[in-house]
Design goal:
single chain, alpha/beta, Rossmann fold, 2 domains, eight-stranded mixed beta sheet, three-stranded antiparallel beta sheet, 28% helix
Length: 256
């Protein structure tokens, strides 16, 4: 199912002890925590692309406190995820949504993210899933028709690649921040549903739209975690405890 990410190759990768190798002898080692790094040097916009270790830890703290549990439930319900699914999470971050759903539903699960700290954290937390470091903006390193469900949770929006790896009878669930997401911390957001549907319109048709919203009374430490996770630290003033809204627009799409 995994394919080589070297430009112009794309051959199937087979496991050989502690590495994956293609027929052209391109080789990718398996890290101690279990993930595989398929990211090519030319695909890095910075030395350490994607989420930082601190941002990953901040999000994990919020997940562990149950703050995002209602969002998870909304994703599970609308996606219809079951034990029969083969799932890809493109832009999986620290793996909370995919890893939790995979444990609950006992489905086959694969996560891709450009951040090495995020994927390493996911591999340590959810070793039963497959975790890959790769640039899903350019290429999803899996063979065509590999998945019955693709998730994009406030993450990648590579419509042609999602369609390529998704089966004809598969589903795509895209989650985007709703206008009132974190409104207490960053003000009213934009309405993004129409533009997002248009982004996927060549390959996918919208089947259902659902907004999931929850609010939590957070202590100062948790508010700081939220700000760190969205890279918006307060300047010259401490974070204050208070009520914070979390809201996602969930878009369920089917291939055309």
């Amino acid at each position: 199912m995994l394919v080589c990410s070297v430009r112009g190759c794309g051959l199937a990768l087979g496991r050989d002890d502690r590495r994956f190798v293609c027929a052209n002898r391109h080789s990718f080692d398996i890290a101690r925590s279990g993930y595989v790094n398929l990211l090519q040097p030319q695909e890095r916009r910075s030395k350490n692309p994607g989420d930082t270790e601190a941002a990953v830890a901040a999000r994990r703290s919020l997940h562990d406190k149950g703050v995002t549990e209602p969002l998870l439930r909304g994703i599970a319900e609308l996606s219809g995820i079951s034990k029969d699914d083969v799932v890809l999470d493109a832009g999986c971050g620290g793996g909370y949504y995919l890893g939790t759903l995979a444990r609950e539903k006992k489905c086959e699960a694969h996560g891709v993210d450009i951040s090495l700290p995020a994927v390493n954290a996911a591999a340590l937390k959810y070793p039963e899933c497959e975790w890959i470091v790769a640039n899903a903006d350019r290429f999803v390193p899996y063979a065509g028709d590999s998945f019955s469900l693709v998730l994009s949770i406030t993450a990648r929006m590579n419509s042609p690649e999602f369609r390529r790896v998704l089966r004809d009878d598969g589903r795509l669930l895209v989650a985007i921040p709703a206008p009132d997401d974190l409104i207490e911390l960053r003000g009213q957001g934009r309405e993004r549903v129409e533009r997002t549907v248009e982004t996927f319109s060549d390959e996918f048709a919208l089947v259902e739209h659902k907004r999931v919203t929850t609010a939590a009374d957070l202590d100062t430490e948790s508010v700081e975690d939220v700000l760190l996770s969205i890279y918006r630290p307060l300047q010259n003033q401490p974070a204050q405890a208070g009520r914070v809204t979390f809201s996602l627009d969930l878009l369920l799409m089917m291939p055309k």
